[in-house]
Design brief:
The structure holds two protein chains of two kinds. Chain A is mostly helical. Helix content of chain A is 46%, strand content 8%. The radius of gyration of chain B is 17 Å and the shape is globular. By secondary structure, chain B is of the alpha/beta class. In chain B, strand 3, helix 5 and strand 4 form a beta-alpha-beta unit. Chain B has one domain: Rossmann fold (3-Layer(aba) Sandwich). Classes of the chains: A mainly alpha, B alpha/beta.
């Protein structure tokens, strides 16, 4: 009885994801061969305690419900490199599913811990960040004090920081690593380091 | 007695020539998730004078970081990223390599050894090569000597 309800849940979840997507995700074709997990850097190097991998995405949802996925760190570590899709013999669109789960999480108010933020007051809308973003998460939109401003799609931002490093005004910054933090490391070294020499 | 003298001599020569460079290390979290592991790869005298910072991707490494590090008294800057084609963000390390090789050229123009900027694109699962390249880099830096602002 309990098993039946659980199976229904996961099918509904898969259908929900499929309905949100334009393409067929084939999530229920998964055989569980774990080739996707063996090539996924986010799964191998993830330091999160939940231990979610591409393969276990669906099975976690079966055991504990989709809410676990929304709160897991794995979905934010996934870079959408699609290596999992390349090796999948059943052509399950794993990384497309993760993208949709990320979007669901953002819509339900969970914030992406790696997303970059734009300081609208200093953004000169030059578009350098948009040109280096590997996921096309940054667009120049109307708004801000200068009429145009860079805007980040937090569901798409994977937090690589390429945009921060090309911004000449330091207007776009990662929450986890601010320019000032790194420069502060050096400053402390200068204060304490002169004595060593 | 003579053995003692010789060993003393070696030790004295060792302390005289052993210049321990201070290095600022930036590494990508996808090729080396643990900062402590990178520190262990360096000789202990160098490691204790160095700082290490984990970045999400080597693409986060700014030229400004390297310049400011040299200005703050570091003798070298090391960037460790994934092998070409292995980047978790597809092209992050290629962007970083392009940008930082330009920086190396600028350093040379400014009269600074471009070898002070160590760029290593290593696989996450090949610690031996990473360790060897870091050791070679440190040895080269010991030969070059401490960084002095040429201006």
């Amino acid at each position: 009885m309990a098993e039946e309800i659980v199976v229904l849940d996961i099918k509904e979840f898969a259908r929900e994801l499929a309905a949100a997507s334009n393409i067929d995700l084939d999530l229920l074709c998964c055989h569980g061969c774990a080739r996707c997990s063996s090539v996924c850097k986010a799964a191998i190097f993830s330091e999160s305690r939940d231990g979610i991998t591409p393969r276990s995405l669906l099975y976690r949802a079966i055991i504990a419900g989709p809410a676990v996925l929304l709160q897991s760190e794995f979905i934010w570590l996934c870079s959408g490199c699609r290596r999992c899709e390349e090796v999948c013999p059943q052509e399950v669109k794993v990384s497309e599913a993760v993208r949709l789960i990320r979007r669901l999480a953002c819509e339900s108010g969970i914030s992406n811990p790696y997303a970059v933020r734009v300081n609208e007051r200093v953004c000169m809308h030059c578009g350098a960040c948009a040109s280096v973003c590997p996921n096309y998460a940054i667009t120049i939109v109307e708004g801000g004090p200068r009429g145009l401003v860079a805007s980040v799609d937090t569901a798409e931002c994977r937090g690589c920081g390429a945009c921060s490093s090309v911004c000449s005004n330091a207007a776009i910054q990662q929450g986890a690593l601010h320019d000032i933090e790194v420069l502060g490391l050096f400053a402390r070294r200068r204060a304490g380091g002169e004595g060593h020499r | 007695m003579s053995a003692l003298e010789i060993s003393d001599g070696i030790q004295a020569a060792g302390t005289e020539s052993a210049f321990a460079p201070a290095i600022a290390v930036f590494h990508c979290r996808w090729c080396e998730p643990d900062s402590q592991k990178v520190l262990v790869m360096m000789p202990p005298d160098v490691a204790e004078r160095s700082i290490i910072r984990r970045l999400n991707c080597s693409a986060r490494m700014e030229a400004e970081f390297a310049i400011k590090a040299l200005g703050a008294g570091f003798d070298g800057v090391v960037v460790i990223g994934c092998e070409m084609g292995e980047c978790h963000y597809r092209v992050g390390n290629e962007q970083a390599a392009r940008r930082l090789s330009v920086l190396a050229g600028i350093l040379a123009l400014a009269g600074i050894y471009p070898q002070r900027l160590g760029l290593f694109w290593e696989s996450a699962f090949d610690e031996v090569t990473t360790r060897r390249s870091i050791e070679e880099y440190v040895e080269a830096l010991r030969d070059i000597g401490p960084f002095k602002d040429p201006h």
